[in-house]
Amino acid sequence: MTLREYLTSKTFFGQLFLAFIITIAVGFLLLQYLDFSTNHGEEIAVPNLAKMSTEQAEEVLDDADLDYVVLDTVDFNPEFPKFSVVQQDPAPGEKVKSDRKIYLKINSGGYSTIRMPELVEKTLRNAESTLQSAGLTLGSLTYKPYIGKDMVLEVKCNGKTVKAGEKILKGSKIDLVLGDGSGGFEDEEDTQEPIDSLP
């Protein structure tokens, strides 16, 4: 039998059909195995762990067949209990497979201390930017006579004067005493007697 006759014979087409059926069957079995080995369709919604202690979070994640890793302790956030979960990844509600690790960031136990930055003789705008960068909050503003308008003259915390370099709690409210822009040459001229009145 020649090659041309074989390629047009019933035997060749029968074997070709058989090979096609075997390929389909192997592909189907492989997909079934992958579905089984990867728990296809058995996804778990990540629970919301915000404000939970690590012990509470561990218990909830164990019940959901999930694991966790504590990445870091972040600066104290007063809106969350001490040592509670502040951030998590993946986010609550996301679908994951069982045994997936949930990465947690934990609130610290309180404000850390920092050194008061130098604010005296800075403008209000610069002082406000410096306070924000240092993790401090701008409090009340009071003014007193000084030629430099909005120039920082004094820095206070809880009613006490604070100097640059002193240790204070991060997150503290800082009150500023500023110059009101008075005390310039015009004010000095106003205090002089008119020339006509001089003897």
TrEMBL record:
PROSITE patterns: PASTA (PS51178). It comes from the Bacteria. Signal peptide: none annotated. InterPro entries: PASTA_dom. Gene3D superfamilies: 3.30.10.20. Keywords: Membrane, Transmembrane, Transmembrane helix. The chain crosses the membrane at residues 12-34. Residues 41-108, 110-180 form the PASTA domain. Residues 180-199 are annotated as: Disordered. This is PASTA domain-containing protein. It comes from Flavobacterium aurantiibacter.
